[in-house]
Design brief:
Blueprint (H helix, E strand, L loop, with lengths): L1 E2 L4 E3 L4 H13 L6 E8 L4 E8 L12 H15 L8 E6 L2 E8 L2 H12 L6 E4 L2 E2 L9 H14 L8 E6 L2 E8 L2 H12 L6 E4 L2 E2 L8 H11 L8 E6 L2 E8 L2 H12 L6 E4 L2 E2 L1
Parallel strand pairs: 2-3, 6-7, 6-8, 10-11, 10-12, 14-15, 14-16
Antiparallel strand pairs: 1-2, 3-4, 5-6, 9-10, 13-14
Length: about 280
């Protein structure tokens, strides 16, 4: 009897057994602690799979690595997200960093895929390599896209009138200008993201510097404690004038984003350096 490194025990060496071994490796239930035996019968001349439940044996040795599990979780989330057609999206995972590849039919779908991947437990960062391939009937000229973007911004009450400028180059929108708050900058990007013909958005708009408030550090700390963060005490806040620096640790990319958004909402915050580590 030869012990396999993946906790599989082979009772014979033959093509049938090796084939069954490979299938066992591929289809062993995720997270289960099963000891799998492959038995070979010389009379029947076929391999059969014998599974014996051993929940207390070989703890900590999982057949499927964390990266493979994370890859499967992200793929499942992409399949679950109704605004994303995951048929042409590939996923790679390495130490919590997820890379999305393939192609989609709109920039809005590309963005939705990134958000879906980012909310999966264990994801520390998302690298976007998805290509936007517009269908023929969804293509628009740069002048049409620019006109639609300007009109959309004009109708948004969150975006100050004439504060954000639009430039379009081969379907790629560049936003410039100055706003008073970061939520106004984000609203402008959201307005143009779902327009027909858009293949990408570069948000270069800036937040206008403001006099910093004296208690901005304490205000941010209190706001973090009011938020949905699992443990806000692991985050440290330091302020120099209107520049905010966040350090410490969180357990998800979602918490990382919540902490940054909370800091940006503080009156007097001119810049936020988010140096929080995802563990």
């Amino acid at each position: 009897m030869v012990a396999g490194r993946d906790n599989l025990l082979l009772k014979a060496e033959s093509p049938e057994v090796l084939n069954a071994y490979q299938k066992a490796v591929l289809f062993k239930p995720i997270g289960s602690n099963l000891l799998i035996n492959i038995c070979f019968s010389t009379k029947v001349r076929s391999a059969r799979l014998c599974i014996e439940s051993t929940p207390h044996q070989e703890q900590g040795r999982q057949l499927i690595s964390k990266d493979t599990q994370l890859q499967r979780d992200v793929l499942a989330e992409l399949n679950w997200e109704p605004s994303v057609n995951s048929a042409h999206i590939g996923v790679m995972a390495n130490a919590g960093v997820v890379t999305l590849t393939g192609h989609v039919e709109s920039f809005a779908e590309k963005y939705a895929a990134e958000k879906a991947a980012g909310r999966v437990k264990g994801v520390k960062a998302v690298a976007q390599e998805i290509e936007v391939r517009l269908a023929f009937d969804r293509k628009r000229g740069d002048d049409e896209i620019a006109a639609a973007a300007i009109e959309r911004l004009a109708w948004d009450t969150f975006v100050p009138h004439d504060a954000v400028k639009v430039k379009v180059d081969n379907g790629w929108i560049a936003l410039t200008g100055q706003v008073e708050w970061v939520y106004q900058k984000e609203a402008a990007e959201q307005d143009v993201r779902r327009l027909l013909g858009v293949v990408g958005v570069s948000n270069q708009a800036t937040v206008r510097p403001r006099p910093s408030a004296p208690d901005i550090s304490d205000d941010i700390i209190h706001a973090l404690r009011r938020s949905w963060l699992s443990n806000p005490k692991t985050i440290e806040v330091s302020v120099d004038g209107g520049d905010v620096r966040l350090t410490g640790t969180v357990h998800s990319l979602q918490d990382w984003r919540v902490a940054e958004a909370t800091a940006w909402a503080a009156p007097g915050a001119n810049y936020v350096a988010n140096e929080i580590t995802i563990i």
